[in-house]
């Protein structure tokens, strides 16, 4: 036996087709099919934007993994170099050079990751912006039709 929804007593199976549901409300000057189509386009745009954002997240995660692997390899190499025989002065000079190189590499990696995130965000925002522009154009057409019918 199906359990009743505790929040409302409506059989939601009646509303599976939104256009049929909306057509029951016979509002003059409202094109239900156009409204449903517009909402479907909105959902498609949001889905595409989410997909782009997720792909961007994956690209950033992959690059972070690569950077971590490279850093571990470089650290191992650096430790080996510092443990090699040599005078304390040579080791201090070598250590200073290695710190400088490591800092520059970390800065470049940070810049690269920031650019990846920015690109991903921009691509996702472009999809949404395009849909908003299309939606406004669709609204202009609907308003023009309503004015023309009066």
Structure described in brief:
This protein is mainly alpha-helical and 150 residues long. It has helices spanning 18-23, 32-83, 88-149. The chain is rod-shaped and about 95 Å long.
Tell me what the structure shows.
- Helix 2 (32-83) runs antiparallel to helix 3.
- The two termini are 52 Å apart.
- The mean pLDDT is 83.
- By secondary structure, the protein is mainly α.
- The chain is built from three helices and no strands.
- 80% of the residues lie in helices and 0% in strands.
Q: Oligomeric form of this entry?
A: single chain
Count of DSSP strands:
0
Tally of alpha and pi helices: 3
The unreliable regions are: none
Tally of discrete structural domains: 1
- Rg over CA atoms, rounded to whole Å, is 29 Å
The overall pLDDT average reads 83
Amount of helix: over 70%
Strand content: under 5%
Q: Give a short account of the largest sheet.
A: none
Order of helices and strands: HHH
Distance between the termini: 52 Å
Net shape: rod-shaped
Structural class: mainly alpha
Q: How does the SSE layout of this entry go?
A:
Elements: H1 18-23, H2 32-83, H3 88-149
Helix pairs in contact: 2-3
Pfam families: Phasin_2
Domain Phasin: 33-132
InterPro entries: Phasin, Phasin_subfam-1
Keywords:
150 residues, mainly alpha, Phasin
């Amino acid at each position: 036996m199906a359990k009743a929804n505790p929040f409302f007593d409506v059989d939601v199976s009646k509303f599976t087709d939104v256009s049929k549901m909306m057509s029951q409300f016979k509002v003059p000057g409202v094109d239900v099919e156009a409204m449903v189509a517009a909402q479907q386009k909105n959902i498609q745009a949001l889905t595409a934007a989410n997909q782009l954002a997720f792909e961007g997240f994956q690209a950033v995660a992959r690059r972070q993994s690569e950077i971590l692997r490279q850093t571990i390899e470089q650290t191992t190499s650096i430790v080996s170099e510092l443990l090699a025989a040599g005078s304390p002065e040579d080791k201090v000079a070598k250590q200073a050079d290695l710190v400088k190189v490591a800092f520059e590499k970390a800065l470049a990696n940070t810049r690269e990751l920031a650019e990846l995130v920015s690109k991903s965000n921009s691509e996702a925002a472009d999809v949404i912006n395009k849909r908003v522009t299309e939606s406004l154009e669709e609204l202009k057409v609907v308003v023009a039709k309503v004015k023309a019918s009066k």
